[in-house]
Structures are given as structure tokens and as C-alpha cells.
Specification:
The protein is mainly beta and 277 residues long. It has one domain: Lipocalin, CATH 2.40.128. The chain is elongated, with a radius of gyration of 22 Å. The protein contains one helix and 13 strands.
């Protein structure tokens, strides 16, 4: 974690040191004027993943990182894009995907549905997440001091999965080696807001937050997706970004093949190459 944030801080310092080379008077950052912005970068995330898979008797949640020592740190590619159409409207999207697998020795008994994996067992474990986010925004104001603020409504579509494989016990009797897995597609609508502040034609402060908290089909719970960062416009249509991203879901699942809960947090710095026109 210290290495990730240290690298992010050094990158930001390099951009700040380069600012005088590109300084110019007047004008606003092009993101407030251009119709298209596309960002491709790396998300250096730290992950917390917990699930509960209930059987006849509700079990305790499984912390995939603490109970199995699964790696918490990931680096994944992420794509973001925004199209401003009309005078006040925009649509934005984002996608990233993570897969994490390892072998571990369980620190304590793990219950998965009606099955138990005993403490000390050597098991294989894994998690996966594919996330797509689409939001439609309405700009509320842009003043002469180069601010932009707007509200949005959209959808987060998540494909979440997890598995454990090893020797399974039912009523204290071994049923041999098995693979127990769950997966779900979570379409979670959300509301949100964003705020951009043009500090100069080269520098932009950008922040956003999305939130969901309600029941929707087979799911109920909450979602947070927030970010805060700066963008440096190095050339007319190319720039660089450094931001901190935070994503959290806490959702109860009530499906025929998975009755339980999922808690997931991913957060960390996001470095990007931005193209705008």
C-alpha cells in the first residue's frame, strides 16, 4: 500500500514540477469545453472481499483475505469515457475487471452452505469481479470562475464470483474433494454527482460520487463509487491524470443458487492517459 501511494505521490510531484513549462494565461481546461474525453489507465487497488453463503443454517461471513491470506493488492487496466451532447447533457462509462486466485491453509473452519472446510485444510480459493458503469448526467451550472457541477443517474453492472475447493465435510464426515462456487450478476441503479474545477488551462480538479441504497430484484443493500483527482493537459488533446478511487458494495443476495451476502471494497490510486477532443 505504501509503495502504491509513494509511486502516486512521485507521479503527482513530477506533474507539478512540469507545470511551469506549460503555463499560459487565460482560458479554461479543455475538459470543460470538449465533447469527448477518453481515459485509459491502471487502477492500483487494495481489496477487501467477504461473502456469506447460507445453507439450512445461516453461516458466518468468509473474509477471503484474512481467512485464506489471498493477496489484497491488484493492478488492473481501466477504461473511462465521457461524451457531452447538447448544451447540458452527457453520458459517461467505466469498466474494470479483476481475477484473484491462490492456494492457502485455512486458519479456521469455513462454512459454505451446508458444507464445512476444516481449519488446517489446504484449499484453492479465488474471486472475480467485472464492473461496468454507465451514467447520464445533467450539468446544473458552469460559472465564469470555471466550475462545472452536475447530477447523474445510471447503472452499475457487476459480475461477481468466488470459489473454494478442497476436502469438504458434511456432518463431520468427509465427502471428498469438491469445488464450491457462487456467482451473480448485480444490476444496481444509482444516483450521483460530479464537480470539476478548472485551475488553469493545464490543470483540472475532478471529483465524482455515485450511490445506491435500496432493494432491486434479488438484491438489497448499498453501493458507493467515488473519486478525487487532478488532470494535467500536456498537449492540445493529450493529458495525464492521477486520482484516488473508492468502490464499495454491501449487498444481500436472495437467489435460488446463492442466498447470502457480499461485501467488497476496492480502493487506491488511478493513473491514466487522457485523450480529449
Amino acid at each position: 500500500m505504501k509503495i502504491r501511494f509513494g509511486a502516486a505521490a512521485l507521479s503527482l510531484a513530477a506533474l507539478l514540477n512540469a507545470a511551469p513549462l506549460f503555463a499560459q494565461d487565460g482560458g479554461v481546461h479543455p475538459w470543460l469545453e470538449d465533447d469527448f474525453v477518453v481515459s485509459l489507465g491502471s487502477f492500483f487497488q487494495k481489496e477487501q472481499f467477504k461473502i456469506r453463503v447460507d445453507g439450512q443454517v445461516p453461516g458466518r461471513e468468509i473474509d477471503f483475505h484474512e481467512d485464506t491470506e489471498l493477496s489484497k493488492d491488484h493492478t488492473t487496466a481501466s477504461l473511462r469515457a465521457r461524451w457531452k451532447f447538447g448544451e447540458k447533457w452527457s453520458v459517461a462509462g467505466q469498466f474494470w475487471s479483476t481475477d484473484n486466485g491462490a492456494e492457502a491453509i485455512l486458519k479456521e473452519d469455513v462454512t459454505w452452505g451446508d458444507n464445512v472446510l476444516k481449519a488446517g485444510s489446504n484449499v484453492g480459493v479465488g474471486t472475480s469481479l467485472d464492473l461496468a458503469r454507465v451514467v447520464f448526467g445533467r450539468e446544473l451550472f458552469t460559472d465564469e470562475d470555471y466550475h462545472e457541477f452536475g447530477l447523474a443517474v445510471g447503472l452499475h453492472w457487476l459480475e461477481v464470483g468466488a470459489y473454494i475447493e478442497g476436502e469438504v465435510f458434511i456432518n463431520d464426515e468427509s465427502s471428498g474433494f469438491q469445488r464450491e462456487s457462487v456467482s451473480a450478476d448485480l444490476p444496481l441503479p444509482n444516483i450521483g454527482a460530479w464537480y470539476w474545477r478548472s485551475l488553469s488551462p493545464r490543470w483540472l480538479l475532478a471529483t465524482h460520487v455515485d450511490w445506491f441504497g435500496a432493494s432491486f430484484g434479488d438484491y438489497s443493500g448499498s453501493l458507493w463509487n467515488a473519486g478525487l483527482g487532478v488532470n494535467f493537459q500536456a498537449w492540445d488533446h493529450v493529458g495525464f491524470g492521477l486520482s484516488y478511487q473508492y468502490f464499495k458494495i454491501d449487498v444481500d443476495v436472495d437467489k435460488s443458487d446463492w442466498n447470502g451476502n457480499i461485501q467488497l471494497i476496492q480502493d487506491g490510486p488511478f493513473l491514466s492517459l487522457n485523450v480529449n477532443w
